[in-house]
Amino acid sequence: MDSNLETFCREILETPNTEGCLLANGQGLCIEAKGKVASPESSGILVALSEQAAKLEPNSNPPTVVLDYKDLTCFIQKHDSHTTAVYRRKK
């Protein structure tokens, strides 16, 4: 993996209450999945959600999709050619 992306993923995981992160490329393929995340096979769906959100909110750079689970919250954002999903534990 690109060392910049590896550093990025490590920094995300060091953030308090963060349980996991998933990085996907523009084609929806999982680049990295660490910690407590949805399965890496869901990376295509996460990318599709971020692309649809960009169509719904074209003036938001970039829009954030929030998925609320019982004990986790997932934040999805597209950055350049990569999509990031960060899973955070609820307080």
UniProtKB/TrEMBL annotation:
Name assigned to this protein: Late endosomal/lysosomal adaptor and MAPK and MTOR activator 5
Keyword annotations from UniProtKB, A to Z: Cytoplasm, Lysosome
A UniProt-annotated Pfam family: LAMTOR5
Highest taxon of the lineage: Eukaryota
Statement: the UniProt record of this protein carries the keyword Transport: no
One GO cellular component, as annotated: Ragulator complex
Protein localization: Cytoplasm; Lysosome
GO term, biological process aspect, one: cellular response to amino acid stimulus
Keyword GTP-binding: no
Organism, scientific name: Lutzomyia longipalpis
InterPro entries reported for this sequence: LAMTOR5
Organism lineage string: Eukaryota, Metazoa, Ecdysozoa, Arthropoda, Hexapoda
Family: Belongs to the LAMTOR5 family.
Coiled-coil annotated residue ranges, if any: none
One term of GO molecular function: guanyl-nucleotide exchange factor activity
